[in-house]
Protein backbone atom coordinates (compact mmCIF):
# COMPACT_ATOMS: atom_id res chain seq x y z
CA UNK A 1 0.00 0.00 0.00
CA UNK A 2 1.26 3.46 -0.91
CA UNK A 3 0.77 6.51 1.28
CA UNK A 4 0.35 10.09 -0.05
CA UNK A 5 2.86 11.46 2.45
CA UNK A 6 5.18 10.55 5.30
CA UNK A 7 2.67 12.12 7.68
CA UNK A 8 -0.05 9.76 6.42
CA UNK A 9 2.22 6.77 6.88
CA UNK A 10 3.16 7.80 10.41
CA UNK A 11 -0.50 8.30 11.25
CA UNK A 12 -1.22 4.78 10.03
CA UNK A 13 1.64 3.47 12.17
CA UNK A 14 0.22 5.24 15.23
CA UNK A 15 -3.16 3.63 14.52
CA UNK A 16 -1.53 0.21 14.28
CA UNK A 17 0.16 0.81 17.64
CA UNK A 18 -3.16 1.64 19.27
CA UNK A 19 -4.75 -1.42 17.65
CA UNK A 20 -1.78 -3.58 18.77
CA UNK A 21 -1.22 -4.65 15.17
CA UNK A 22 2.50 -5.15 15.70
CA UNK A 23 2.95 -7.42 12.69
CA UNK A 24 1.88 -4.60 10.37
CA UNK A 25 4.44 -2.24 11.90
CA UNK A 26 7.24 -4.80 11.68
CA UNK A 27 6.37 -5.52 8.09
CA UNK A 28 6.41 -1.92 6.86
CA UNK A 29 9.03 -0.11 8.93
CA UNK A 30 12.40 -1.94 8.73
CA UNK A 31 12.85 -1.15 5.07
CA UNK A 32 11.85 2.51 5.34
CA UNK A 33 14.01 5.56 5.63
CA UNK A 34 11.88 8.39 6.89
CA UNK A 35 13.66 11.79 6.77
CA UNK A 36 12.72 13.97 9.71
CA UNK A 37 10.62 11.29 11.37
CA UNK A 38 13.06 8.40 11.51
CA UNK A 39 13.29 8.73 15.29
CA UNK A 40 9.55 8.41 15.83
CA UNK A 41 9.43 5.49 13.40
CA UNK A 42 12.17 3.68 15.34
CA UNK A 43 10.30 4.17 18.62
CA UNK A 44 7.21 2.65 17.02
CA UNK A 45 9.20 -0.24 15.56
CA UNK A 46 10.93 -0.92 18.89
CA UNK A 47 7.54 -0.90 20.60
CA UNK A 48 6.28 -3.52 18.14
CA UNK A 49 9.40 -5.66 18.54
CA UNK A 50 9.13 -5.57 22.34
CA UNK A 51 5.51 -6.67 22.25
CA UNK A 52 6.39 -9.53 19.89
CA UNK A 53 9.33 -10.69 22.00
CA UNK A 54 12.06 -9.64 19.56
CA UNK A 55 14.21 -7.96 22.19
CA UNK A 56 17.48 -7.91 20.28
CA UNK A 57 15.79 -6.31 17.30
CA UNK A 58 14.30 -3.64 19.55
CA UNK A 59 17.74 -2.94 21.02
CA UNK A 60 19.40 -2.84 17.59
CA UNK A 61 16.98 -0.24 16.25
CA UNK A 62 16.90 1.90 19.39
CA UNK A 63 20.68 2.23 19.32
CA UNK A 64 20.45 3.64 15.78
CA UNK A 65 18.86 6.78 17.27
CA UNK A 66 20.70 6.94 20.58
CA UNK A 67 21.91 10.50 20.02
CA UNK A 68 18.28 11.64 19.76
CA UNK A 69 16.81 9.32 22.34
CA UNK A 70 19.31 9.50 25.20
CA UNK A 71 17.43 12.40 26.81
CA UNK A 72 14.01 10.81 26.31
CA UNK A 73 12.24 8.85 29.03
CA UNK A 74 10.48 6.71 26.42
CA UNK A 75 13.68 5.80 24.58
CA UNK A 76 15.57 4.93 27.76
CA UNK A 77 12.60 2.94 29.07
CA UNK A 78 12.27 0.84 25.93
CA UNK A 79 16.00 0.14 25.73
CA UNK A 80 16.01 -0.86 29.42
CA UNK A 81 13.12 -3.28 28.76
CA UNK A 82 14.91 -4.78 25.74
CA UNK A 83 18.07 -5.36 27.78
CA UNK A 84 16.19 -6.67 30.82
CA UNK A 85 14.51 -9.35 28.71
CA UNK A 86 17.94 -10.43 27.50
CA UNK A 87 18.96 -10.82 31.16
CA UNK A 88 21.51 -8.02 30.82
CA UNK A 89 20.35 -6.47 34.07
CA UNK A 90 23.45 -4.51 35.04
CA UNK A 91 23.59 -3.00 31.57
CA UNK A 92 19.87 -2.15 31.63
CA UNK A 93 19.78 -0.42 35.03
CA UNK A 94 21.54 2.84 34.00
CA UNK A 95 19.04 3.33 31.16
CA UNK A 96 16.11 2.82 33.52
CA UNK A 97 17.65 5.25 35.98
CA UNK A 98 18.16 7.79 33.21
CA UNK A 99 14.53 7.33 32.11
CA UNK A 100 13.23 8.51 35.49
CA UNK A 101 15.90 11.22 35.75
CA UNK A 102 15.28 12.95 32.41
CA UNK A 103 11.51 12.44 32.52
CA UNK A 104 10.38 11.91 36.11
CA UNK A 105 6.67 12.18 35.21
CA UNK A 106 6.86 9.28 32.72
CA UNK A 107 5.35 6.45 34.81
CA UNK A 108 6.62 3.46 32.84
CA UNK A 109 10.21 4.47 33.46
CA UNK A 110 9.53 3.90 37.17
CA UNK A 111 8.04 0.50 36.33
CA UNK A 112 11.15 -0.91 34.67
CA UNK A 113 13.42 0.91 37.14
CA UNK A 114 11.65 -0.82 40.03
CA UNK A 115 11.95 -4.22 38.37
CA UNK A 116 15.65 -3.80 37.70
CA UNK A 117 16.33 -2.60 41.24
CA UNK A 118 14.56 -5.71 42.48
CA UNK A 119 16.66 -7.84 40.13
CA UNK A 120 19.71 -6.29 41.82
CA UNK A 121 18.31 -7.31 45.23
CA UNK A 122 17.65 -3.67 46.18
CA UNK A 123 14.18 -4.46 47.47
CA UNK A 124 13.43 -1.30 49.46
CA UNK A 125 14.53 0.94 46.60
CA UNK A 126 12.44 -1.17 44.19
CA UNK A 127 9.34 -0.67 46.34
CA UNK A 128 9.97 3.06 46.55
CA UNK A 129 10.33 3.32 42.77
CA UNK A 130 7.12 1.35 42.22
CA UNK A 131 5.25 3.65 44.62
CA UNK A 132 6.48 6.72 42.72
CA UNK A 133 5.09 5.20 39.53
CA UNK A 134 1.79 4.41 41.23
CA UNK A 135 1.52 8.03 42.37
CA UNK A 136 1.60 9.02 38.71
CA UNK A 137 -0.92 6.29 37.77
CA UNK A 138 -3.26 5.94 40.78
CA UNK A 139 -4.88 2.53 40.95
CA UNK A 140 -2.93 1.14 37.97
CA UNK A 141 -2.95 -2.66 38.07
CA UNK A 142 0.65 -3.07 36.88
CA UNK A 143 2.04 -0.95 39.68
CA UNK A 144 -0.22 -2.36 42.39
CA UNK A 145 0.63 -5.94 41.35
CA UNK A 146 4.33 -5.09 41.23
CA UNK A 147 4.26 -3.68 44.76
CA UNK A 148 2.34 -6.70 46.02
CA UNK A 149 4.66 -9.21 44.33
CA UNK A 150 7.80 -7.51 45.65
CA UNK A 151 6.30 -7.30 49.15
CA UNK A 152 5.52 -11.03 49.01
CA UNK A 153 9.11 -11.87 48.06
CA UNK A 154 8.38 -13.44 44.67
CA UNK A 155 11.32 -14.24 42.41
CA UNK A 156 12.63 -11.74 39.88
CA UNK A 157 11.20 -13.85 37.05
CA UNK A 158 7.77 -14.03 38.70
CA UNK A 159 7.77 -10.30 39.38
CA UNK A 160 8.85 -9.24 35.90
CA UNK A 161 7.55 -11.93 33.56
CA UNK A 162 11.07 -12.22 32.16
CA UNK A 163 12.09 -15.72 31.14
CA UNK A 164 15.62 -17.01 31.50
CA UNK A 165 15.58 -17.96 27.81
CA UNK A 166 14.39 -14.53 26.61
CA UNK A 167 16.65 -13.05 23.96
CA UNK A 168 18.15 -16.41 23.02
CA UNK A 169 15.35 -18.15 21.20
CA UNK A 170 14.68 -15.41 18.66
CA UNK A 171 18.06 -15.79 17.00
CA UNK A 172 18.24 -19.52 17.26
CA UNK A 173 20.87 -19.73 19.99
CA UNK A 174 18.65 -21.83 22.20
CA UNK A 175 18.22 -24.37 19.40
CA UNK A 176 21.86 -24.50 18.34
CA UNK A 177 23.16 -28.07 18.60
CA UNK A 178 19.70 -29.56 19.13
CA UNK A 179 18.51 -31.86 16.36
CA UNK A 180 15.30 -33.86 16.15
CA UNK A 181 13.61 -35.87 13.40
CA UNK A 182 11.06 -38.63 12.90
CA UNK A 183 11.63 -41.79 10.87
CA UNK A 184 8.24 -42.88 9.50
CA UNK A 185 7.24 -46.56 9.52
CA UNK A 186 4.45 -48.55 7.89
CA UNK A 187 4.54 -50.94 10.87
CA UNK A 188 4.87 -50.69 14.65
CA UNK A 189 7.84 -53.06 14.48
CA UNK A 190 11.35 -51.60 14.79
CA UNK A 191 14.59 -53.19 16.02
CA UNK A 192 16.53 -50.59 18.01
CA UNK A 193 19.28 -53.09 18.84
CA UNK A 194 19.87 -53.66 15.11
CA UNK A 195 20.28 -49.89 14.70
CA UNK A 196 22.93 -49.87 17.43
CA UNK A 197 24.83 -52.71 15.78
CA UNK A 198 24.68 -50.96 12.38
CA UNK A 199 25.87 -47.67 13.87
CA UNK A 200 29.01 -49.45 15.03
CA UNK A 201 29.65 -51.33 11.80
CA UNK A 202 28.87 -48.46 9.39
CA UNK A 203 30.04 -45.41 11.31
CA UNK A 204 32.15 -46.70 14.19
CA UNK A 205 29.71 -45.16 16.67
CA UNK A 206 29.68 -46.73 20.12
CA UNK A 207 27.97 -45.32 23.21
CA UNK A 208 30.05 -44.10 26.11
CA UNK A 209 29.30 -43.96 29.81
CA UNK A 210 27.03 -41.23 31.05
CA UNK A 211 28.98 -38.14 32.13
CA UNK A 212 29.06 -37.78 35.88
CA UNK A 213 27.56 -34.29 35.80
CA UNK A 214 24.54 -35.36 33.77
CA UNK A 215 21.40 -35.36 35.87
CA UNK A 216 19.66 -38.03 33.83
CA UNK A 217 19.03 -41.71 34.23
CA UNK A 218 21.66 -44.26 33.39
CA UNK A 219 22.17 -45.30 29.80
CA UNK A 220 19.16 -47.44 29.02
CA UNK A 221 18.14 -50.03 26.55
CA UNK A 222 14.86 -51.82 25.88
CA UNK A 223 12.89 -53.09 22.93
CA UNK A 224 11.72 -49.65 21.76
CA UNK A 225 14.11 -47.04 23.16
CA UNK A 226 17.83 -46.45 23.34
CA UNK A 227 19.40 -43.48 25.10
CA UNK A 228 23.16 -43.19 25.03
CA UNK A 229 26.04 -40.73 25.11
CA UNK A 230 28.94 -39.93 22.85
CA UNK A 231 31.14 -38.05 25.24
CA UNK A 232 28.76 -35.57 26.80
CA UNK A 233 26.35 -35.49 23.84
CA UNK A 234 23.06 -37.29 24.35
CA UNK A 235 21.49 -39.41 21.60
CA UNK A 236 17.97 -40.78 21.89
CA UNK A 237 16.21 -43.27 19.59
CA UNK A 238 12.64 -44.02 20.57
CA UNK A 239 9.89 -45.98 18.80
CA UNK A 240 6.47 -44.30 19.04
CA UNK A 241 3.87 -46.95 18.08
CA UNK A 242 1.45 -44.41 16.65
CA UNK A 243 1.12 -41.94 13.81
CA UNK A 244 2.69 -38.52 14.15
CA UNK A 245 0.41 -36.02 15.91
CA UNK A 246 -2.08 -33.70 14.18
CA UNK A 247 -1.24 -34.77 10.63
CA UNK A 248 1.93 -32.68 10.86
CA UNK A 249 4.10 -35.01 8.76
CA UNK A 250 1.48 -35.22 6.01
CA UNK A 251 1.16 -31.44 5.95
CA UNK A 252 4.90 -30.82 5.57
CA UNK A 253 5.28 -33.66 3.07
CA UNK A 254 3.50 -31.34 0.61
CA UNK A 255 6.60 -29.12 0.54
CA UNK A 256 8.87 -31.76 -1.02
CA UNK A 257 8.80 -30.85 -4.71
CA UNK A 258 11.52 -33.48 -5.36
CA UNK A 259 9.27 -36.38 -4.31
CA UNK A 260 5.81 -36.26 -5.95
CA UNK A 261 4.55 -39.24 -3.96
CA UNK A 262 5.62 -37.78 -0.60
CA UNK A 263 2.13 -37.02 0.69
CA UNK A 264 0.54 -40.31 -0.34
CA UNK A 265 3.43 -42.33 1.07
CA UNK A 266 3.45 -40.34 4.32
CA UNK A 267 -0.26 -40.96 4.82
CA UNK A 268 0.45 -44.69 5.11
CA UNK A 269 2.70 -44.43 8.15
CA UNK A 270 1.54 -46.26 11.29
CA UNK A 271 4.37 -45.42 13.66
CA UNK A 272 7.46 -43.25 13.89
CA UNK A 273 10.88 -43.30 15.50
CA UNK A 274 12.03 -40.12 17.21
CA UNK A 275 15.74 -39.46 16.80
CA UNK A 276 17.22 -36.65 18.87
CA UNK A 277 20.71 -35.33 19.47
CA UNK A 278 21.38 -32.83 22.26
CA UNK A 279 24.88 -31.48 21.81
CA UNK A 280 27.18 -30.93 24.73
CA UNK A 281 30.87 -30.81 24.08
CA UNK A 282 30.28 -30.96 20.32
CA UNK A 283 29.90 -28.10 17.86
CA UNK A 284 26.51 -27.79 16.15
CA UNK A 285 28.11 -29.05 12.93
CA UNK A 286 29.51 -32.19 14.58
CA UNK A 287 26.21 -32.77 16.40
CA UNK A 288 24.38 -32.34 13.10
CA UNK A 289 26.62 -34.90 11.40
CA UNK A 290 25.95 -37.35 14.22
CA UNK A 291 22.20 -36.83 13.86
CA UNK A 292 22.35 -37.52 10.12
CA UNK A 293 24.37 -40.70 10.69
CA UNK A 294 21.85 -42.03 13.23
CA UNK A 295 18.85 -41.22 11.04
CA UNK A 296 20.48 -42.67 7.92
CA UNK A 297 21.14 -45.88 9.85
CA UNK A 298 17.52 -46.02 11.00
CA UNK A 299 16.37 -45.52 7.41
CA UNK A 300 18.05 -48.78 6.35
CA UNK A 301 15.83 -50.83 8.67
CA UNK A 302 12.67 -52.67 7.50
CA UNK A 303 9.29 -50.89 7.28
CA UNK A 304 10.80 -47.41 6.78
CA UNK A 305 8.94 -45.17 4.32
CA UNK A 306 10.34 -41.66 4.93
CA UNK A 307 11.91 -39.22 7.37
CA UNK A 308 10.25 -36.06 8.65
CA UNK A 309 12.95 -33.50 9.42
CA UNK A 310 13.88 -29.88 8.58
CA UNK A 311 10.35 -28.91 7.66
CA UNK A 312 9.69 -31.57 5.05
CA UNK A 313 9.52 -35.35 4.48
CA UNK A 314 12.54 -36.77 2.66
CA UNK A 315 12.62 -39.93 0.59
CA UNK A 316 14.83 -42.47 2.42
CA UNK A 317 17.07 -43.08 -0.60
CA UNK A 318 17.77 -39.36 -1.02
CA UNK A 319 18.58 -38.84 2.65
CA UNK A 320 20.91 -41.87 2.74
CA UNK A 321 22.71 -40.78 -0.42
CA UNK A 322 23.48 -37.36 1.07
CA UNK A 323 24.58 -38.94 4.38
CA UNK A 324 26.90 -41.38 2.64
CA UNK A 325 29.00 -38.45 1.34
CA UNK A 326 30.54 -38.36 4.81
CA UNK A 327 31.95 -41.88 4.35
CA UNK A 328 34.20 -40.77 1.52
CA UNK A 329 35.05 -37.34 2.92
CA UNK A 330 35.13 -36.62 6.65
CA UNK A 331 34.88 -32.90 5.90
CA UNK A 332 31.71 -33.27 3.80
CA UNK A 333 28.69 -31.33 5.05
CA UNK A 334 25.31 -33.05 4.52
CA UNK A 335 23.58 -29.69 4.13
CA UNK A 336 20.76 -31.11 1.99
CA UNK A 337 19.80 -33.35 4.93
CA UNK A 338 20.08 -30.47 7.39
CA UNK A 339 18.33 -27.69 5.54
CA UNK A 340 15.20 -27.68 3.40
CA UNK A 341 15.25 -25.19 0.53
CA UNK A 342 11.69 -24.13 -0.21
CA UNK A 343 10.96 -22.92 -3.74
CA UNK A 344 7.83 -21.21 -5.03
CA UNK A 345 6.59 -18.66 -7.53
CA UNK A 346 4.60 -15.51 -6.84
CA UNK A 347 3.40 -12.46 -8.75
CA UNK A 348 6.59 -10.66 -7.72
CA UNK A 349 8.88 -13.39 -9.08
CA UNK A 350 10.64 -16.55 -7.88
CA UNK A 351 11.32 -17.22 -4.22
CA UNK A 352 13.47 -19.49 -2.04
CA UNK A 353 13.74 -19.91 1.72
CA UNK A 354 15.67 -22.07 4.16
CA UNK A 355 14.33 -24.22 7.00
CA UNK A 356 16.86 -25.72 9.39
CA UNK A 357 19.49 -23.02 9.93
CA UNK A 358 18.41 -22.40 13.53
CA UNK A 359 19.85 -25.78 14.56
CA UNK A 360 23.25 -24.18 13.90
CA UNK A 361 22.47 -20.96 15.74
CA UNK A 362 21.88 -19.13 12.46
CA UNK A 363 18.85 -17.30 11.14
CA UNK A 364 16.75 -18.57 8.27
CA UNK A 365 17.24 -16.84 4.90
CA UNK A 366 14.94 -15.80 2.06
CA UNK A 367 15.28 -14.50 -1.48
CA UNK A 368 12.02 -12.89 -2.60
CA UNK A 369 10.72 -11.75 -5.96
CA UNK A 370 13.84 -12.73 -7.88
CA UNK A 371 14.07 -12.78 -11.68
CA UNK A 372 16.45 -15.76 -11.54
CA UNK A 373 15.11 -19.25 -12.23
CA UNK A 374 14.10 -21.58 -9.39
CA UNK A 375 16.94 -24.01 -10.11
CA UNK A 376 19.48 -21.20 -9.97
CA UNK A 377 17.94 -19.87 -6.75
CA UNK A 378 18.18 -23.31 -5.15
CA UNK A 379 21.84 -23.66 -6.07
CA UNK A 380 22.66 -20.14 -4.94
CA UNK A 381 20.95 -20.49 -1.55
CA UNK A 382 22.57 -23.90 -1.04
CA UNK A 383 25.96 -22.29 -1.64
CA UNK A 384 25.21 -19.58 0.94
CA UNK A 385 23.99 -22.11 3.51
CA UNK A 386 27.14 -24.20 3.05
CA UNK A 387 29.25 -21.10 3.55
CA UNK A 388 27.36 -19.91 6.65
CA UNK A 389 27.31 -23.33 8.34
CA UNK A 390 30.71 -24.60 7.22
CA UNK A 391 32.60 -21.40 8.06
CA UNK A 392 30.43 -20.50 11.08
CA UNK A 393 29.57 -17.12 9.60
CA UNK A 394 26.89 -14.86 11.04
CA UNK A 395 25.26 -12.54 8.51
CA UNK A 396 23.93 -9.19 9.71
CA UNK A 397 21.47 -6.65 8.42
CA UNK A 398 23.13 -3.82 6.55
CA UNK A 399 25.99 -6.01 5.35
CA UNK A 400 26.43 -7.15 1.78
CA UNK A 401 27.10 -10.61 0.44
CA UNK A 402 29.90 -10.53 -2.10
CA UNK A 403 29.11 -12.66 -5.14
CA UNK A 404 31.97 -11.07 -7.03
CA UNK A 405 34.09 -7.91 -6.88
CA UNK A 406 31.44 -6.15 -8.91
CA UNK A 407 28.30 -7.64 -7.33
CA UNK A 408 27.43 -7.06 -3.67
CA UNK A 409 24.04 -8.26 -2.48
CA UNK A 410 22.35 -6.24 0.30
CA UNK A 411 21.03 -8.06 3.39
CA UNK A 412 17.86 -6.96 5.18
CA UNK A 413 16.48 -8.49 8.37
CA UNK A 414 12.71 -8.45 8.86
CA UNK A 415 9.69 -10.59 9.68
CA UNK A 416 9.75 -13.84 7.74
CA UNK A 417 7.47 -14.27 4.73
CA UNK A 418 7.72 -18.04 4.25
CA UNK A 419 8.91 -19.05 7.73
CA UNK A 420 8.06 -17.84 11.23
CA UNK A 421 10.17 -15.35 13.12
CA UNK A 422 12.77 -13.00 11.67
CA UNK A 423 14.68 -13.89 8.52
CA UNK A 424 17.55 -12.46 6.51
CA UNK A 425 16.40 -11.22 3.10
CA UNK A 426 19.08 -11.37 0.40
CA UNK A 427 18.44 -9.18 -2.64
CA UNK A 428 19.26 -11.36 -5.64
- Total of helices: 19
* Strand order in space, largest sheet: 2-3-4-5-1-6-7
Tally of distinct domains: 3
Question: Strand percentage, roughly?
Answer: 15-25%
Tell me the total number of β-strands: 13
Alpha-beta classification:
alpha+beta
How would you characterize the largest beta sheet? 7 strands, antiparallel
Arithmetic mean of pLDDT: 87
Q: Which residues form runs of ≥5 with pLDDT under 50?
A: 167-174, 213-221
Describe the global form: globular
Note the gap between the termini.
Answer: 23 Å
Describe the structure.
- This protein has 428 residues and is of the alpha+beta class.
- It folds into three domains: 155 residues, Tetratricopeptide repeat domain (Serine Threonine Protein Phosphatase 5, Tetratricopeptide repeat); 156 residues, no CATH class; 87 residues, no CATH class.
- It is built from 19 helices and 13 strands.
Amino acid sequence: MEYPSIEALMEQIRDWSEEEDYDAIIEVLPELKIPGQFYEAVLCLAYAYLNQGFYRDAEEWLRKVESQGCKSGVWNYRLAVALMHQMRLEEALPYAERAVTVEADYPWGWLVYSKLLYGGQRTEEALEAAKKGLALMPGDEEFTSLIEDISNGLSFFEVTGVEEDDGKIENGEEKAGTFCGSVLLDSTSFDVNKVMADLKSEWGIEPSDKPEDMASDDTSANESTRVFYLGETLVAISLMPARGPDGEAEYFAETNYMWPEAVEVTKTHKAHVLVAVLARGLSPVEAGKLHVKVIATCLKQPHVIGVYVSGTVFQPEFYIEVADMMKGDENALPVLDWVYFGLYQSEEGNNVYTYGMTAFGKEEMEILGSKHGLTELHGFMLEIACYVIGSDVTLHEGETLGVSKEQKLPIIRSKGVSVEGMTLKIEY
